[in-house]
Amino acid sequence: MRESSSQLAGLRKRIARLAANGGFERRRADGWLASGHARFDTAIGGGLAIGRTHEFFAADALDATSAAAFAALIALRTPGTAPLIWLRTSDAGKRTGHIYAPGIAELGGDPDRLLLVETPDPKMLLACANDAIRCAGSAAVIVESWGKFPLLDLTAGRRLALGARDAGSTLLMLRLNAAPTPSVAETRWSVAAAASYALEANAPGAPAFDLELLRWRGGTAPARWRLDWNHDEKSFGDSALSGALLPLPARRAMASHGAAAA
Fold first, then answer.
1. Reduced to 3 states, what is the DSSP secondary structure of residue 39?
2. Which helix or strand (DSSP H or E) is residue 77 part of?
3. Rounded to two decimals, what is the model's pTM?
4. What is the pLDDT of residue 96?
5. Residue 160 in contact with residue 130, Cβ under 8 Å?
6. 3-state secondary structure at position 111
7. What integer pLDDT is reported at residue 206 of this predicted model?
8. Who's near 13: CB < 8 A, 6+ residues apart?
9. Which residues of 67-101 are buried (b: 16+ CB within 10 A; e: fewer)?
C-alpha cells in the first residue's frame, strides 16, 4: 500500500507518473465493473458502468465498514495491476478505522494497488478528487466523505462526472453517515452489513452485504440483494444458506482498529 502526501501537488505528480510511466492504456468510457455475481450484474445491465459515478451510502459507522469494503472489493476486481486511488480526509481513521493492508490481502485483494491520499479538509478532498478522476490509468477512484458534504453540489458533481467519462475511470463516492441527496450519479446504493454463515469447523464466514439500489439512471429502482464475498474466486456470490448464522459479519477484516474497515 503506497501512501501519498496530503498535498494536492504531491497527488498531481503521482498521477502524472502513473499516466506517463505506468504502462496503463486509456480506457473507453464504456463497459462494466462486474461483481462476478451473474444475476446481480445482469439485473443492473452488466455491472457498475465504467466512466460513471456511483454512490454508496451508509447510515452509521458500523455500516460504513461494509460500504467501504464493498467499494474496495469491487474496484479491486478489475484485471491487471492498475492502481485504485482512495481519497479520504486525515481524520477519517478516527471515525471509521485505518485501511489495513493485511486484511485486504486476506480477502484476496492486492494492497499494493492502493494509492491512499489523505487530505486535511473536505475542500482539498474535492480538489484532489477532480485531479484523481482524470488519471486515465487508474482502476477506479474512491472518494470517502463523512456526513454532509455541502461542497459536493450538483455543479461539483457534474465536473467529477465529466472527468470520469473523459478518462474512462469509475468514480465510487463513499457517503458515510450521510443521507441521499439529488446528484448526477449513475447509481445510488445503500449498503449495510449482513450476518455471515459459519464455515466448516465453525470458521468465520465470508463478509456479507445487504445492498439496496436506490436510484439507477438507466433502469428501475429500488431493488435489493444480499451478496457474499468469495475469497477463492475473488468475486461476489450468493450467500451460503447452510451452517450456523454468525451475529456479526467480518466487519473488522480490513480495519486495524475501531468499528470500520475498508
1. helix
2. none
3. 0.82
4. 81
5. yes
6. helix
7. 78
8. none
9. bbbbbbbbbbbbeeebbbbbbbbeebbebbbbbbb
